[in-house]
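Much of what follows relies on a compact textual record of a protein's fold. With that in mind, consider the following protein and its fold in token form.
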Amino acid sequence: MTTNPVSDASFDEDVLKSDTPVVVDFWAEWCGPCKMIGPSLEKISDELGEQVKVVKLNIDDNPKTPAAYGVRGIPTLMVFKDGQVHAQKIGALPESQLKQWIESSI
């Protein structure tokens, strides 16, 4: 399992209607910290396997969803469970802290 891209159009189906907790990474191509945590999220996604889905939403290509959830800075990570925001973290974290946060949030 690796991180998959989602869009404004697929957000409802891929995230809100998911049976599994979903970590959404709100990011942009020009964002240095976003690029720093990308490989960590891939690794965490592989390690946690079926327990959680990790998806990425490019805020430049998909402005509607970040606006709806009040995303003001990136990277912003949100954990969705049963269609609701369960946890949120703004900014880059070391891989170990990212994993710990995700595990405690799912």
Notes: The first strand starts at residue 4 and ends at 6. The mean pLDDT is 97.
